[in-house]
User: What shape does this take?
Amino acid sequence: MALKTSAGFLRLKHLKQVVRLLSAHTRPETVINGGKPAEFPGAKAPYVTQMKFLNETSYDPIPIYRVMENNGEIIDSREEPNIENETLINMYNTMVQLNNMDKILYESQRQGRISFYMTNYCEEGIHVGSAAALSPRDLVFAQYREVGVFLYRGVTVTELVNQCYGNHEDPGKGRQMPVHYGSKQFNLVTISSPLATQMPQAVGAAYAFKRVPNNDRCVICFFGEGAASEGDAHAAFNFAATLDCPVIMFCRNNGYAISTPAIEQYRGDGIAARGPSLGIQTVRVDGTDLLAVYNAVSRAREYAVTNNKPVLIEAMSYRVGHHSTSDDSSAYRSLEEIKKWNTDESPVQKFKLYLEHKGLWDVESDKTWNKEARNIVIKTMQEAEKKKLPNWKEMLEDVYYDMPPRIQKQMQQMEEHLKKYPEHYPLDQYQSD
Amino acid sequence: MSSAIRKNCFLISKLFKNVNNCSKRLSSHFIYFPDNEKPVDGETSKMNMMQAINNAMDITLKNDPTAVVFGEDVAFGGVFRCALGLQEKYGKDRVFNTPLCEQGIAGFGIGLATAGATAIAEIQFADYIFPAFDQLVNEAAKARYRSGGQFDCGALTVRTPCSAVGHGGLYHSQSPEAFFAHVPGLKVVVPRGPIAAKGLLLSCIRERDPCIFLEPKILYRSAAEEVPLEDYTLPLGEAQLLKEGDAATLIGWGTQVHVLLEVAQMAEEELGIKCDVIDLQSILPWDEDTVCNSVKKTGRCLISHEAPLTSGFGAELAATIQEECFLHLEAPIARVTGWDAPFPHVFEPFYLPDKWRCYHTLAELVKY
Ligand SMILES: Cc1ncc(C[n+]2csc(CCOP(=O)(O)OP(=O)(O)O)c2C)c(N)n1
Ligand SMILES: [Mg+2]
Assistant: This one.
């Protein structure tokens, strides 16, 4: 985020040049304070004699890094990441699996089979590109629209669908709403609905990693551009910078927070502009370009782990689906607006074209995998639906490590109550002792 | 996308024909008892609670030129559509979206009120009011006191949807009234339906103290009543006696009032007893007179709320009732509440203080 025309803003040797820049061009150059910068504890900056307010137009907009054209062609061959063919195909397959899961689970909510769902359309490249660039041991703090990261890590469709049903095979024991996945095994911290709370937590986790001898892990934290307005977001950035934490703060800027468009969420140059101002290494990428996301996260990861410093990534995208099954976005945006993100700018489409150029994929393989991916979800759902919900007693477990006597007493009360009034409770849907 | 989905929908319904449905656990846990008494005469219109709240804000915006309505997604009406159409009617400077930040919403509202405007803030879900806790507890509640009465933010009302909906899980179901009831300086109100919501919300908006208005979200659409169209208020700090009897006093607020009304009906049919049913409405300050007079009459008291038992507002009621009515009590005061656990998703039918748990406790209470 360099000041317009000057890359050396903060480099003190270029002090004179800077003084010129920030003052009126008509004034003769003056030497202030013997040419030495100010030594306030809060700012080491040059003095100037003319006051000038800075605003968003004082800076060039932070550019958006791209690797691919919309037709899947590499723009600058030096930027093409070196990824094995098998991995590339796996990446694409994950996106398709994700799409099929979204379509079917969204519909299943409409039919009352699950209580809630959120789709991920147009953000598949963000999920898979970032997940592929990380080490599986890196800890992920997600918001909720990142299930592609979970899939890529190796969480199965079955586990995800079980969570949505809250059945007894849901690792979260049916306690949370659908899409609140979590997997200790795959280093995916369980999702929580309150927005931005995961952000300072991710920073704390990164600090803990840093203190482990020979640490080679980092933390990645996903958050929406809406969540970035919360107080916790600022706290996270500032802690990450001042406490030198190896964390990647990854903003999915999809243009909307439910009905609120980005223009009503913030002014200035997006979320990325906040990075340099807080002393954080920052990059903005095209989130619909999987390879751009991959490069950004690989380099961010290397930087974070090597230097014990945070990186902020802002990935630009668009929320193609409704916010969730509780939302009807036709109330606040036009179908017309959505169209191009579903076609030319579709991350899945772009990456497919890239694979086709490389001769790794064709129409036939696409058809076959789509069909299989769809069947996997449907079969899994049929099974998930037959599975019982967890024993109702799970309701009172895990509140504390050891159940305090007061909760034991409450469990006993409920047990007696259910013995007396079993016909009024859907006990047959739940596992029994 | 949508056509693909529609096609899929058809295929899936075919595939799933034989699988059991799970509608039982999604059905609602109470019967709605509409209000038949109108607080004022005059023309009425059938409104659900969402429309009644919309109507109260509409009246305020029309008559009070300083009034503004704001919060996350409020411009298009809010996620529960309570502000529907108000931006079109009153303009973008009076009904608007804020950035996604509850502490900001509360602080901004306090500032508006400090500077003489009427502030109606919406927090999208009561579960998300906690980032605003500091602003509400340390600032809104204490502004008058710490300034020696020079400043206040009485013109602030914070509306927020609360309580169970059948499938809200941990973070779309909480009933946080007790947290705010512990804060001298705030007023806390929970309506049980459209008529009450309109009158109480208008009172909160005009009240000289900051108010937290908790709206049981399950009632937004499920509850409909003939609501008077004109401007009216219902007094804060007063409970309503909805049903009379002599066997016991049942106390609740919000959705739970309807559970208790049904329980009273069951007790009448099954046990042949009649109970007082009290809607507390105002949690802070609460109506000691109505409650204690009733308990002195009946000698038995059951308090019920969705929030967890420990330190729930029922504890405060029970302590005061035993102090005031000790010699009249025939049995220990009973509390039927949510359990001491976070609000769970698939276990909601077991978590809620439903009519069977309340009925059973009442039956024990009268036998005591
Ligand atoms: C603290 C808090 N406030 C409000 C909400 C309700 N809410 C859920 S998602 C959402 C919008 C989030 O938008 P964004 O961060 O941009 O993520 P996106 O949905 O676009 O992926 C809101 C307001 C919440 N979950 N938590
Ligand atoms: Mg967003």
